[in-house]
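comment on this one:
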Amino acid sequence: MPEPNIAHKFPAKVELEAGKTYAWCACGHSQNQPFCDGSHKAHPPFSPIVFKAEESKTAFLCQCKHSKNKPYCDGTHKTL
């Protein structure tokens, strides 16, 4: 299984809106990190993780693409 590209070794602080759907980049090649821009189409077998925010809040989304709690950062970037 190929490894995702490490976009950054720090999380992205984002403001999520309740009820809004987001597509988190799983391949690491998006130019719109941490969100998907369709770059995964050139980097199979990756697909974005689509999720709906249950509440409006500040979140820290993974940009190293190795979190065990995708799309959220779990600190894995500190070990890469």
Strands lie at 12-16, 21-24, 49-52, 57-61. The chain has no helices and four strands. Residues 21 and 65 are 19 Å apart (CA to CA). The longest strand covers residues 12-16.
